[in-house]
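Progress report, Aim 2. The chain analyzed during this reporting quarter is listed below.
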Amino acid sequence: MTTPHFVLLLLPEVTLLPYAGFTDKLRFSADDDDRSRQRYCTWHSCKLLDEPLYASSGACIDIPVLTPDLDLSQADFVVLFGGRTSESALTVAPKLLPVLQPLIHRNTHVVAIDNAVFTLAACGFLTGKRAMLHWRHQTQLKQLFPKVQVQEQGLFVTDGNITTACGGTGAIELAEYLLAHTMNPMQASKGLADMMVSERRNPLEFTPWQQQSSVTDRHVYRALILLSEGLGHSLDMELVSRRIGISRRQLDRKFLQQFQLTASAYFQKMRLERAAWLLHHSTGTLEQVANTVGYQNLGHFRSQFKRCFGHSPRAYRENQ
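Predicted structure tokens for the chain:
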């Protein structure tokens, strides 16, 4: 196999988590032990605009600017790292179109992470194709580009020579997936333990939150985000309602209209559905699964799970 080369292109207001996870995964696979030499794969980073590049966190990143003399035809993968907003990704699309068009025609593998998916869509490269991005932005992508087949479940998806991804820590598995196409699987997965990745997530089935695309009420949508972020805790619905600026009674009324469940009951349903997913896709003990979704009492978790799914957690796992 040839040594794969990655060009990492950072867009304005780039989010650092996926960039850091992706590049560190390349680093671990690129050499033996922890020597960090670029032997088994190579990469370099560049920015699109000839101006200071600030990350979404405010950090200034000093990397070279993409210039016409940079021969992208030698790259096996060109990876676009999106910024904090879709608006900034859409703004740079006209500048990126003449850069990406020859690569697409040459079948270079182009990768877009999170909001960089908007850039590819605006360039017309995702029309009729499947695409994945962070769940917070899926509804907006559907509205702006209805001909893109947005996948609501997974970490990333490949359609032809284009891969789109949700970002976050999922960029680690994304890098491993791309490397596995060009080197042996053991080298591609090297370093995961060092990166504290103990559970392997299925990139096609992972669902951090069951996106309710039919939700149009802004208060319900904001509440769902808070609930999804608090699955590992016992949330106070009074606090949730205050955070989104309505009363607890209004919150329950809106949830009953949308889901036929109170906010508290719906949160319970979310926790148990997450537990069911973990039982099927992880190797954690029942106690670890229960703790992950906020149940400190294993007996209470068992009874609630059986009430919801008709089986005990152990039987549910064995039947999957």
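The chain has two domains: 5-188, 218-319. The chain has a mean pLDDT of 91. These observations will guide the mutagenesis work planned for the next reporting period.
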